[in-house]
Write a structure and sequence with these properties.
2 domains; 10 strands; globular
Length: about 250
């Protein structure tokens, strides 16, 4: 579905992506993880055509996306920070997006699921962060596109809304969709993700299943496995370096 080859991107002198090679072929939920500044958002924006790579190629369903825009109609996107006119009412925003995209959105079911009926006449500026995030989720998921990209979808959600989001994602996964998620909530990843891609300083340090990641880093939890990846990056040892033994002792202590 999505293939990325040698993707490189810099902003001025700062190299953000340093030769990313990825392929998302199987439907399911992939968690794209990494510390702040690791390149996650730039990778997502490159897939969406919002950031133009310096080198490399991205293919969507086998077609190079360079200079193309039509493929984006097959992707639904939830940005980490959604910026809409603050004076719009929720129902006006929903209507605006429907007018722009056309088709038959499934907005009513999602509005009911997240109990947003009392807020339809409220202006965005008056909404709490959690309610605003529920509106953003409705906007991102009310169309039936084959690819979902969700950047920090759990931000501000209460426990009930979190349960509804998880169930929605399971339903979308069962439809055979590709779902890419960035999040800092490791319990959410452990419960929902089929695959993990871990970025560190613009490079991929791991891609594979959750159990594979834990076994590779001899960790009992995803959180500990990632802590060891980060510690390994800080130590910066090579497989042939004299510091390998000391580094392994540090990693084992985590």
């Amino acid at each position: 579905m999505i293939a990325i080859e040698n993707l490189q991107k810099s902003f001025g002198k700062q190299k953000v992506l340093k030769g990313i090679n990825l392929e998302f072929k199987r439907p399911g939920i992939t968690a794209i993880l990494g510390p702040n500044g690791s390149g996650k958002t730039t990778l997502i924006k490159s897939i969406l055509g919002m950031a133009l790579p310096d080198k490399g190629c991205i293919r969507f369903q086998g077609e190079d996306i360079s200079g193309s825009w039509a493929y984006r109609r097959q992707i639904d996107y939830l940005p980490q920070i959604a910026r809409f006119p603050e004076n719009l009412a929720v129902k006006e925003l929903l209507r605006m997006i429907q007018d722009l995209r056309g088709g038959q959105p499934d907005a009513e079911r999602l509005i009911g699921l997240f109990a947003l009926q009392p807020y339809l006449d409220s202006r965005l500026a008056a909404l709490s962060g959690g309610t605003r995030q529920k509106v953003n989720i409705v906007l991102a998921m009310m169309y039936d596109s084959p690819v979902l990209i969700l950047d920090e979808p759990t931000s501000g959600l209460d426990p009930v809304a979190m349960l509804h989001l998880k169930e929605l994602l399971r339903q979308e996964k069962e439809k055979g969709k590709h779902i890419l998620i960035t999040t800092h909530i490791m319990s959410f990843v452990e419960e929902m993700a089929d695959e993990v891609v871990f970025l560190l300083e613009g490079r991929i340090h791991f891609q594979g299943g959750l159990q594979e990641l834990k076994e590779k880093y001899d960790a009992t939890s995803l959180e500990r496995a990632i802590a060891r990846i980060l510690r390994e990056g800080e130590l910066g040892f090579s497989s042939n370096g004299h510091g390998e033994k000391a580094a392994k002792l540090v990693l084992k202590a985590l």
